[in-house]
Design a protein that fits this description.
Length: 95
Amino acid sequence: MQHLSCRITTATIAGPSTLALSFNDGTHQTIDLSPVLRGGLYRKLRNPRYFAKVALDPDSGTVVWPNGADFDPALRHDWPTLAAKFTKLAQAWPP
């Protein structure tokens, strides 16, 4: 994993609970977030209408929602290698 300067440059809805992301290093990821939409702030993102309110925060370079939910851009960048570990962690959160 690299980072500190990893930033999301574009974010679009690619399906239910799924984002297509572009990063400042020229890479792209399509990420289904449904396995980690649990507990606290993230539970609300299960609603497709609310999930669609995603925005790109130009200051932090990450995706955000009106309720304050966000995801670390470095985690999203490296999702293919971190998905299983993060999903397992999220399963311990309240539904």
